[in-house]
Specification:
The chain is an alpha/beta fold. Helices cover 41% and strands 21% of the residues. The protein has three domains: 123 residues, PAS domain (Beta-Lactamase, 2-Layer Sandwich), CATH 3.30.450; 148 residues, Alpha-Beta Plaits (2-Layer Sandwich); 221 residues, TIM Barrel (Alpha-Beta Barrel). α15 links the parallel β13 and β14. Bound molecules: ligand C2E and magnesium ion (2 copies).
């Protein structure tokens, strides 16, 4: 495998190289000397570069790379220090004789092996593969880094860097990202927060003076006519007692993504915002973890009312994470979805609903409950299996427990999702499509997923009320559902006007503050508010399905 020059490489270097292979997945692994000359090559060099490993040894590494990426990669490799990996991201290799080269994802690492060497691993990427790793994939990596740093503790430094001029923003911006990453924990835990702020996670006690000077010089060199840039930085401790590294990582990723644009903020204000985001995210992850593991969360119930009889058809179970049980779970649910915790939570909610049924006094056999399931959970085989097991054990709840699918946009595979839904329906648990809007996507879901009901999103209804053809659209939609044997629920009905509107448009059921805000006890709805508004009407005949 190795040529004669490489055969002289010390055993130690070999060992490190193969140890590295274990975490640097790759199609091609190179070792470089500090001047970036290729010392050894192993792996699919011909497939990637069209040249055999022998042809590369002794040449400059940057010759391998397409011209546009060369400067950027050289800049990062030159700033590597031992034990600090730089995930340089996606680059293109130089093609042979002017052809377009292969797209690869590249990672570099400089090891203190007694002899200075840089290890580079490359993995081939499909042309249409995304540039950056997916959000969710950041979590396990980050968790690993945090676990590794936990002896010293981790800190986060916030940098305020003047906006890079538009014309040089591309390559200079990328070099800057790469540089910060090279100095972050594990070489891949730096992040751009907005157009001016960057966060870098690192071992506690690290000083960034030289890096700051380097960046200032780089920006100045790109535009020497501009006044010399000044970079400010601020270091925040990472406090997360009692959290697992993976939960800490989930919180970090979520907080970083939620920083928002803050280029107008002073360093102090940006630090304050970052601190708040972090503390909110950690609070939410901790609550969510307790909710999932110990069932520490509440349910608020809201009635879904039959427009024609005025009777309560069933209640929707809404998760509550605050003590008072009045706050919206929206942020926590979003966090659960973004961090992949949602499937565990949705299962915890289904369990809680089952327990709640057990607490009902006798003679309440007609009380029904709908539980939300995120479209994201449906993708998970573990969730589907867990839910089916729960329902099998609690078959007595058939026709009393139903499900609402929220966040349909997160359903990865509509056919598989429909299979899951039909599984529930066959067992006697009905399914609604939640947050149904007027958008074209909604029709796609409606045709791909066979459900018992659709719930029209409050915003869609308000829009229909205002829009010129809104009434015609909503009426056509409810008519379509009626013909398919699907019931229609209008959500967020707050006023008698909205109620009259959806009734005129042919909806069967309503839900909203007009008939009560969600409450911890269903007894609250024994006297349904505004029931008088529901004059008994003759129900349009539903055409049976098939
Ligand atoms: P959703 O399933 O569409 O639930 C209806 C939301 O509208 C609830 O918000 C309810 O409090 C609110 N609402 C009801 N009537 C009115 C009204 O007249 N006016 C206004 N402005 N709002 C009204 P909530 O409780 O904040 O829940 C927000 C979302 O969080 C839910 O929307 C659902 O998507 C999600 N969610 C709640 N519990 C769970 C859960 O256990 N699992 C999952 N995956 N998602 C959940
Ligand atoms: Mg719902
Ligand atoms: Mg809804």
């Amino acid at each position: 495998m190795l040529n004669t020059e490489a055969a002289t490489t010390t055993l130690r270097l070999e060992r490190d190289r193969y140890a590295l292979l274990a975490f640097c997945w790759g199609d091609l692994l190179l070792t470089l000397d500090p001047r970036l000359r290729i010392e050894t090559v192993s792996g699919a060099s011909e497939a990637l570069t069209g040249l055999s490993e022998y042809a590369w040894t002794g040449r400059k590494f940057t010759d391998l790379i397409a011209e546009k990426d060369r400067g950027r990669i050289a800049a990062v490799l030159e700033t590597l220090t031992p034990t600090r990996r730089a995930l340089a991201g996606t680059i293109r290799l130089a093609g042979r004789e002017g052809a377009t080269g292969t797209r690869v994802s590249v990672a570099a690492h400089r090891l203190d092996t007694g002899r200075d060497a840089i290890f580079v691993s490359m993995r081939m990427l499909a042309e249409d593969a995304p540039d950056e790793p997916e959000e969710i994939e950041e979590v396990p990596r980050l968790a690993e880094r945090l676990a590794a740093a936990s002896a010293q503790g981790a800190e986060m430094t916030l940098f305020a860097i003047p906006e890079i001029p538009r014309d040089t923003g591309g390559p200079l911006g990328e070099t800057l990202d790469d540089l910060l990453r090279a100095h972050s924990l594990g070489g891949d835990t730096a992040m751009r927060l907005d157009s001016r702020h960057y966060s870098v996670l690192h071992e506690a006690g690290r000083s960034f003076g030289p890096v700051i000077h380097q960046i200032e010089a780089m920006i100045h060199a790109a535009d020497p006519t501009a006044p010399p840039p000044r970079i400010e930085s601020m270091t925040l401790p990472m406090q997360a007692e009692g959290m697992s590294e993976s939960d800490l990582a989930r919180g970090l990723v979520y907080a970083m993504h939620r920083f928002g644009e803050g280029s107008e903020l002073s360093l102090h204000e940006a630090g304050q915002r970052l601190r708040e985001r972090l503390s909110d995210a950690m609070g939410s992850v901790t609550r969510l973890r307790r909710a999932i593991d110990d069932g520490v969360f509440g349910i608020a119930f809201q009635p879904i009312v039959d427009l024609y009889s005025g009777a309560i058809d069933h209640f929707e179970a809404l998760a509550r994470f605050d003590q008072a049980g009045t706050g919206s779970p929206f942020e926590t649910i979003r966090l659960a979805e973004e961090t992949g915790l949602i499937e565990d939570f949705d299962l915890a909610m289904a369990r809680k609903a089952v327990s709640w049924f057990r607490t009902l006094p006798l003679n309440n056999e007609n009380i029904c409950l709908a539980v939300n399931i995120s479209g994201r959970s449906i993708n998970s085989a573990a969730y589907a299996e867990g839910l089916h097991r729960l329902l099998e054990e609690n078959h007595w709840l058939r026709r009393r427990l139903s499900f609402e699918i929220t966040e349909s946009a997160q359903i990865a595979d509509l056919d598989a999702a429909n299979g899951f839904i039909q599984g529930l329906r066959r067992r006697g648990f009905s399914v609604a499509l939640d947050d149904f809007g007027a958008g074209a996507a909604s029709f796609r879901y409606l045709s791909a997923l066979e459900v018992d009901a659709v719930k029209f999103d409050g915003a869609a209804i308000r829009h229909a009320q205002r829009a010129q053809k809104g009434r015609a659209f909503l009426s056509a939609l409810t008519e379509l559902c009626r013909r398919m044997g699907i019931s229609t629920v209008a959500e967020m009905i707050e006023t008698p006007e909205a109620l009259a509107f959806v009734r005129d448009c042919g909806c069967n059921f309503v839900q909203g503050y007009l008939f009560g805000q969600p409450a911890a006890e269903i007894g609250r709805f024994a006297q349904l508010p505004n029931r008088g508004l529901l004059v008994p009407l003759q129900r349009p005949r539903t055409v049976a399905h098939h």
